[in-house]
Structure formats: C-alpha cells, structure tokens
Design a protein that fits this description.
Layout (H helix, E strand, L loop, with lengths): L11 E10 L2 E7 L8 E2 L2 E3 L6 H13 L2 E16 L5 E16 L9 E7 L13 H11 L1
Parallel strand pairs: 1-6
Antiparallel strand pairs: 1-2, 1-4, 2-3, 2-7, 5-6
Length: about 140
Amino acid sequence: MTDPRAYPDRPFLAVSAAIIRDGKVLIIRRAAGLASGIYTLPGGVVEAGETLTDAVVREVREETAVAIEPVTLAGYREMIVRDGDTRVARHFVILCFAARWISGEPAPDLSEISEAAWRHPDELKSLKTTQGLQEIVAEAMAKL
C-alpha cells in the first residue's frame, strides 16, 4: 500500500500542541518516518470534517494519552521535503497550538513515539528538534 502523503499534489494540514504544565512543555521524540529520532511537539494530520481544536485534542490523546485544552494558536510551521530530483516528497502546513494540560501522564504510542517527557524550555537547546520548536514553545508560554 502506498503512502498517500508521499509525493502529494497538495499540502496536508496538520496540528500540534505546545502543552504547558508547571513551566514545562511536553516534548516527544519520533520513533519512525522522516522525523525519526527528532524531538518535537505531539500532533498530526487533520481529518476531513474535523475542527482544528478537535484534531489537536485527538492527536495528543492518541500519541501520548494526555488530555489538553487548546487555548490559542502559537504559530505555524511548514515542512517541505524534496527528493534528489527536487520533487516535493512531503508537504505539511502545521498549525501549532498553545495548550493547557488537563490530565494524564505521558504514555507514548510506541509505534510512533520513542519518548515523551515534560521538559523545561531551556533543555530544548541541547536536543535535536524540529526547526523552530524553541520559538513556538516560547510563544505558547507567552500566550498562556
């Protein structure tokens, strides 16, 4: 079965959440795919008929078992990956939410995530992260 997100004819809309709890943010490390080994925020693709806030709540719950309250947008990121022939292999537009933790402790879906932990924003400097992660976290903390 081919991946419908590979070599797309349009960008895919995705969401993520900078979940803040006691001055820390929930950071995950991807276990598979293009971002394997990279630290980032939990999130994923918006499904047809789903609101943005419903999508981010669902994705965070599926990936980490944590319940959240999305508050406001903290920014956006675009991920465009090209192959050796410069064709677009992947294209995502990611809306990043500032969110409050409601309940649950991180229990990552190990098929997608190898680690999930609450980290102080200063710790992000020493990690291999997705581009712009520190700025999104700073914006989320400022908005909350």
